[in-house]
Write a structure and sequence with these properties.
heterodimer; A: 364 residues; mainly alpha; two-stranded antiparallel ribbon; globular; B: 279 residues; alpha/beta; Rossmann fold; three-stranded antiparallel β-sheet; 12 helices; 36% helix
Chain lengths: 364, 279
């Protein structure tokens, strides 16, 4: 047990990690202004999604351009709970969610039943995307669809889902999605305390996700995944059924991403099909590429830097964001194939060299 | 890590005819008394009308070191692909150890689990992993997803890896990233990974390509020392190397077995000289 923990991190890194986790979790109580709490909470959710993305892309070499779908599905699960838990308090005072009254529906569709229960809704928010990923992954990986072909299929999948969810008849509020939430587990969503608690829940989920991912990538299974990424056929000749490994990591990643989505929705107050748009999934891949794939810290760093930049730019120079984003992606691809984290060794080298030059009486 | 007990090699073919046919009501499990370890029977594969393998039949004795030679396009690699499950043959069967399971119906990993290991033509190691981790991943054992998630090296397994690293001369490179090794070292690492897998049959495709003379000699010694414990098939173009290790040679030509026999005899075979050995 202790030995396994040591494999995950050196004792000093554990101490550092514990400190960072504690500070992040307690941030709203350490002077983070109330109006920034939901924004930072959102970043934590993006961090979870970035870790999930890195697990499949960075470690197993499976580039998903459809993770936004799992994120959104998790969000819809939570959204359904938030709608159902306030039945009768909507604009129309109906037992049905407002958009159903608006569409003149008389009865709750069968797949909405049970969502008034929080545990059931959470279970569904994780299980449905997980099951979708399992089935999709099993068929795709078994047919040995890989590389760019797989990426395109995932992109098509999320696009198809967007179209489906845009339709009113699908039963998830169409274009507008689910919104006008009021309470979660009896706590009013707009109260600062609730927001802080949601932030703390997201932080705990992020720390848990990090630990789980770290456990996976430092296990032998993690080494098999990387081996599959580098030489899949060889792993098969070593006796590993690579399909099972890919399906496993793919499904795990989808579930983590769905959890991020479920935590995201109560903090932003809305979920609609635009969350599933292909561009959202591509954005997730860019976070990881910017930070540095194949390192969990890099994925987090990328998610936060890109989203921080986005929040700042979209308010300071609204039209500049897309150009900056595109430019960033091109720059990272061209100059930083290993992301910002890939700069670290170079930076150390540079500092070392500089120090060496400054030291009197020593030539480098 | 314990090696599989290998049944003693039975009498040579010469004595086989003089042996009385056993009269038994219950047949003895074939594996227990089988001098043969691998059967390839009437294997045919064609790619877009090109017959890569045309009705190939061959058997391997337990513990032998067989060389497989032939000009380019003779079907050597295709034969290995069929045995290891990478290519599905159009017809024919492959059996390992007992004649119960037809390998041509199984997946690559299942075949590997049953005991066939393979070294590729181009050295293929897990570039991003250290030499030690490469051996760890190759180790014989259960290779299911959840078992692997919680798997830890036992003392015996560590000892086995150390032994292998010693044997392939990479002990001091254990912590080095495999992608950074020299070409010859990668070849050895791949052979080491095969040993960690502890297969019954090792298929070794061009083990000395790109090696220096000294490295070649060491590889020859290594392969010779492994024969007996394992059954080994070596595909190689370097005739000098083949001469240095071969006892029995099978020559493939245009997807067919052209000749089969001891090295000395093969070298004198006029057909072989004509299509392959030349000069």
């Amino acid at each position: 047990m202790i030995a396994r923990l040591r494999e995950m991190h050196a004792p000093r890194a554990w101490a550092l990690l514990a400190g960072a986790a504690l500070a992040t979790t307690l941030l709203p109580f350490l002077g983070l202004p109330d109006h920034l709490v939901p924004l930072f909470g959102k970043f934590l959710c993006f961090g979870i999604a970035a870790l999930a993305m890195d697990l499949v892309w960075g470690y197993a070499g499976i580039l998903s351009l459809g993770h936004g779908l799992f994120f959104a599905l998790g969000g819809y699960g939570m959204g359904m709970y938030l709608m159902r838990s306030i039945a009768g308090e909507g604009v129309y005072r109906s037992n049905l969610p407002d958009f159903m009254v608006f569409l003149d529906w008389k009865e709750l569709p069968w797949y909405w039943h049970g969502f008034q229960s929080f545990p059931f809704a959470i279970a569904m928010a994780l299980a449905v995307p997980g099951l979708l990923a399992l089935v999709f992954g099993w068929f795709a990986f078994r047919s040995r669809i890989r590389g760019v072909y797989f990426s395109i299929v995932t992109q098509a999948l999320t696009y198809a889902a967007t179209l489906l969810f845009f339709q009113n008849a699908t039963g998830f509020g169409g274009n507008n999605g689910l919104t006008d939430f009021k309470r979660i587990l009896g706590w009013p969503l707009h109260a600062p305390e609730t927001r802080r608690l949601l932030y703390v829940a997201s932080a705990i989920a992020l720390v848990g996700t990090y630990l789980l991912c770290r456990f996976v990538v430092t296990s032998r299974l993690g080494r098999v995944l990387t081996a599959v990424r580098d030489a899949e056929l060889k792993t098969r000749f070593c006796g590993y059924e690579s399909t099972n490994y890919k399906v496993f990591v793919w499904t795990l990643s989808a579930v983590l991403c769905a959890m991020a989505g479920a935590l995201y929705v109560p903090q932003v107050g809305i979920i609609n099909p635009s969350e599933m748009q292909p561009s959202n999934s591509i954005e997730m891949a860019i976070w990881v590429a910017v930070g540095g794939r194949g390192t969990l810290g890099g994925a987090l760093l990328g998610a936060w830097l890109v989203n921080g930049g986005k929040s700042w730019l979209t308010s300071a120079f609204p039209s500049a964001w897309l150009y900056a984003f595109g430019g960033l992606f091109v720059a990272v691809t061209l100059f930083l194939p290993r992301g910002l984290v890939g700069l670290l060794p170079k930076l150390k080298l540079g500092v070392g060299r500089l120090a060496g030059q400054l030291r009197p009486g020593r030539q480098t | 890590m314990s090696l599989m007990p290998i049944p003693p090699v039975m009498d040579d073919d010469a004595d086989a005819s003089s042996r009385p046919t056993p009269i038994l009501a219950v047949p003895i499990p074939e594996a227990a008394r089988q001098p043969l370890v691998l059967w390839v029977e009437n294997l045919s594969v064609s790619f877009d009308g090109f017959k890569a393998l045309d009705d190939v039949t061959l058997t391997l004795d337990r513990g032998e070191l067989r060389c497989l030679i032939g000009p380019n396009g003779a079907g050597k690699t295709t034969l290995m692909d069929c045995i290891t499950g990478k290519t599905r043959p159009d017809s024919g069967q492959v059996f390992l150890d007992s004649r119960l399971t037809d390998l041509t119906k199984l997946s690559e990993c299942r075949i590997a689990e049953l005991g066939i290991g393979r070294k590729f033509q181009r050295p293929t190691v897990f570039q991003g992993h250290t030499v030690y981790e490469n051996c760890e991943l190759a180790l014989k054992g259960k290779k299911g997803v959840f078992r692997t998630l919680f798997a830890r090296l036992s003392g015996a397994e560590r000892k086995r890896i150390d032994e292998i690293l010693e044997l392939i001369g990479l002990a001091e490179h254990a912590g080095r990233q495999a992608g950074l090794l020299a070409h010859g070292q990668k070849q050895w690492l791949e052979i080491g990974m095969l040993l960690a897998q502890d297969p019954k049959v090792l298929l070794v495709d061009e083990p000395v390509a790109g090696m220096t003379h000294a490295e070649m000699e060491r590889t020859a010694d290594l392969l010779k020392s492994l024969a007996g414990k394992h059954t080994i098939v070596v595909v190689e173009h370097d005739m000098e190397f083949v001469r240095s290790i071969a006892r029995r040679v099978t020559v493939l030509h245009e997807g067919k077995v052209l000749a089969d026999g001891p090295m000395a005899q093969i070298q004198k075979n006029p057909r072989v000289v004509e299509v392959y050995l030349g000069e």
